[in-house]
Q: What sequence folds into this?
C-alpha cells in the first residue's frame, strides 16, 4: 500500500510517500522559519502564501525521489486539522485534486494524532500506551488503547510548552524558534541556578493539565531583576527554565502511568526532540518510552501517510478543514 501524504497545518510544507506505514520512499519538508523569524512566530497569512509557493515543488521532489508517478499511488492523505485554516486549505485542496483526477481514495488525517502515532514509523509500539504530544501548538496527554480508542485526559490551559520556549527565547533576545536555541544553551548552563515553578495545574480535577503562564511570568520577572545579563547568566536561565518546563511533562506522564498501570509511553511532537526531555524519559527503566527521531518529531508528511495506512478514515471532496482538536478524540474535555 503506497500512500502520498501532505502536511501544511502550520509553517512546514511537506509531502512524503510511504509504503505500508513504515517504508519511507521520500520525505520532503520545506521550512518557512527564515520567513517568520523576524516576527518571533508564525504569521498565518504569510504561511499560507508560502505553502502555495512551495507545495508543487515539494510534490515534484517527493515523486522524483520515490521514482513513482501519481498514478502509482494507492491513496492520498492530508492533514485536515487542527492548524491554521488558510494553511490547511492549501494541502487539503491539493490532495482533493489528486484524489479526484486520479480516482484515488482520500484519507483524512488529524494532525495531533499523526504526531501521537509517529513512533509507529520506526518502532513496533504496543497498545495500550500513555501518549504525550508536545509542540508549539499542543500539550496534550492521552490514554491510547488502539488507533480508534483515544482518551484525552490532560492539556494546557494556556500556552503550549513549545510556545513557552519561543516566548522565553524572545525575552532573552535569542531568536526564533526558541526550542532548539534554549536546548543548546542549556547544555552550558546550571539547571539549578534559578528556582522556577513547574508548568502545572495541581487541583485534583485538573491534575493532568498543564499551565505555562506562571513559569513564563517567573522567568520574565527574574530577567527584569538582573542588571547585567551575562552569557553565562542567560545559559543558566535557559537551563533552569528548561528543567521546569520539561520535568512537569515527565511527572504528569509518569503519574498517569502509575495510576493506570500502563508502562508504555509515547512522547511526540516538536518538543520531543529536546535533549533533556529525551534524557529523562529514556533513562527511566520502569517504563518503555517511544520517541520518534528528530526528523519525525517536527511537522512532516511521513507521519500523515503512515497514520493513513494504520487508520484509513476516508474523506469526501466536501469535507472541510478544522482549526481545533478533532471531536474524534474523546476524553474528559475536547479542546
A:
Amino acid at each position: 500500500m503506497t500512500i502520498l501524504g501532505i502536511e501544511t497545518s502550520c509553517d512546514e510544507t511537506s509531502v512524503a510517500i510511504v509504503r505500508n506505514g513504515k517504508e519511507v520512499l521520500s520525505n520532503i519538508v520545506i521550512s518557512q522559519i527564515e520567513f517568520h523569524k523576524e516576527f518571533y512566530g508564525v504569521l498565518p497569512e504569510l504561511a499560507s502564501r508560502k505553502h502555495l509557493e512551495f507545495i508543487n515543488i515539494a510534490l515534484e521532489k517527493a515523486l522524483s525521489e520515490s521514482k513513482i508517478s501519481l498514478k502509482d499511488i494507492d491513496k492520498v492523505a492530508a492533514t485536515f486539522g487542527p492548524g491554521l485554516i488558510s494553511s490547511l486549505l492549501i494541502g487539503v485542496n491539493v490532495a482533493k485534486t489528486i484524489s479526484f483526477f486520479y480516482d484515488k481514495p482520500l484519507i483524512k488525517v488529524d494532525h495531533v494524532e499523526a504526531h501521537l502515532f509517529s513512533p509507529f514509523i520506526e518502532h513496533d509500539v504496543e497498545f495500550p500506551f500513555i501518549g504525550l504530544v508536545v509542540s508549539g501548538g499542543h500539550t496534550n496527554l492521552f490514554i491510547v488503547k488502539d488507533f480508534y480508542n483515544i482518551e484525552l485526559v490532560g492539556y494546557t490551559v494556556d500556552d503550549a510548552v513549545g510556545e513557552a520556549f519561543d516566548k522565553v527565547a524572545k525575552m532573552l533576545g535569542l531568536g526564533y524558534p526558541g526550542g532548539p536555541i534554549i536546548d543548546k544553551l542549556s547544555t552550558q548552563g546550571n539547571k539549578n541556578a534559578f528556582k522556577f515553578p513547574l508548568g502545572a495545574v495541581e487541583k485534583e480535577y485538573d491534575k493532568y493539565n498543564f499551565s505555562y503562564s506562571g513559569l513564563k511570568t517567573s522567568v520574565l520577572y527574574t530577567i527584569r531583576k538582573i542588571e547585567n545579563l551575562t552569557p553565562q547568566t542567560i545559559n543558566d536561565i535557559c537551563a533552569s527554565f528548561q528543567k521546569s518546563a520539561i520535568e512537569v511533562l515527565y511527572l504528569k506522564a509518569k503519574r498517569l502511568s502509575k495510576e493506570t498501570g500502563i508502562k508504555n509511553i509515547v512522547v511526540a511532537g516538536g518538543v520531543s526532540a529536546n535533549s533533556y526531555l529525551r534524557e529523562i524519559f529514556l533513562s527511566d527503566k520502569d517504563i518503555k518510552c517511544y520517541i520518534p527521531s528528530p526528523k519525525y518529531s517536527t511537522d512532516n508528511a511521513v507521519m500523515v501517510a503512515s497514520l493513513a495506512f494504520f487508520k484509513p478514515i476516508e474523506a469526501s471532496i466536501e469535507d472541510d478543514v478544522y482549526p481545533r482538536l478533532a471531536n474524534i478524540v474523546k476524553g474528559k474535555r475536547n479542546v
User: Anything to note?
Assistant: Confidence is low (pLDDT under 50) at residues 327-335.
